[in-house]
Design brief:
seven-stranded parallel sheet; 16% strand; globular
């Protein structure tokens, strides 16, 4: 599928969980985190999603340590616009001066001259959306960013953003149990914009859903494979990014690509 002019495989990798507990600090086993990242790419995930707030900063550093110099087909997407003053806190930070520094910081940590996809992580209610997007547009103009995406946006907010920037992706929470962004997904499909569902497994809640469990038994698959395959079947612009710190779970998740969800299964 396409993210802007970039071709990526249908199933990406959300790198957030290779950080420490609660996405805070370094992992307990840094070498194992590197192995998970490398294995994700080996299994065909050539789209990695991260953010400067994961760690904070740790996640981007781990990706560079594990994979730089990067394979030519690897697309790295990162985000800015949230800060972590302490574990459990995710504060909006949409001031232009902060985002300028965030972009430069991500470039340095990821060891990149240009970020493939840079996403505004969330709208800061204290800053007009247009002001927050300004540094992203400026960075794109000078070659620091290739494509711009947004996260946690409504349809109305997406259209506001599209008036001042070319938006190639939207990342919202979406999974079998939580379809509150259904209208955003439909709008993205209409426009040909990639849709990245975060929490594609609902932090594990989806795996306990009876319909998912029943289909998993019928198809001799895991519940995670069914939940991911359902996302893939839901829309051609869907780019799931399940994350894990377990190589075993990673290999199971990637197996969803081989699971065909039939029309009667969807119904």
């Amino acid at each position: 599928m396409k993210v802007g002019d970039l071709s990526v495989n249908r199933l990406g990798f959300g790198a957030m969980r290779v950080c420490g507990p609660n996405v805070w600090g370094p992992p307990r086993d840094r070498k194992h985190a590197h192995a998970v990242l490398r294995r994700a790419y080996e299994l065909g995930a050539n789209f990695f999603d991260t953010a400067d707030s994961y760690g904070p900063h740790v996640d981007e550093e781990l990706i560079a340590e594990a994979l730089h110099p990067y394979p030519k087909d690897l697309v790295i997407a990162t985000k800015g616009g949230l800060v972590r003053p302490k574990p459990g806190r995710w504060d909006e930070a949409g001031r232009p001066e902060h985002l300028k520094q965030a972009i430069d910081g991500s470039l340095k940590r990821l060891k990149l001259e240009r970020i493939d996809l840079y996403q505004l992580h969330a709208i800061d209610p204290k800053v007009p959306l247009e002001e927050s997007l300004g540094p992203l547009v400026d960075a794109q103009r000078v070659g620091k960013i290739r494509h711009i995406g947004v996260s946690n946006f409504t349809v109305v907010e997406l259209e506001r953003a599209r008036r001042i920037a070319t938006i190639v992706s939207v990342q919202n929470e979406y999974n079998f149990d939580n379809r509150s962004s259904e209208d955003v997904l439909d709008h993205c499909e209409k426009l040909g914009i990639a849709f990245l569902p975060w929490f594609p497994l609902g932090a594990g809640d989806v795996l306990r859903t009876e319909k998912v469990k029943t289909l998993a038994r019928q198809r001799k698959a895991t519940s995670a494979q069914v939940a991911i395959a359902w996302l893939l079947a839901r829309s051609p612009v869907m780019l799931p990014i399940p994350g894990t710190r377990s190589i075993e779970h990673l290999e199971q998740n990637m197996g969803a690509l081989a699971l065909h969800i039939r029309r009667e299964d969807l119904e």
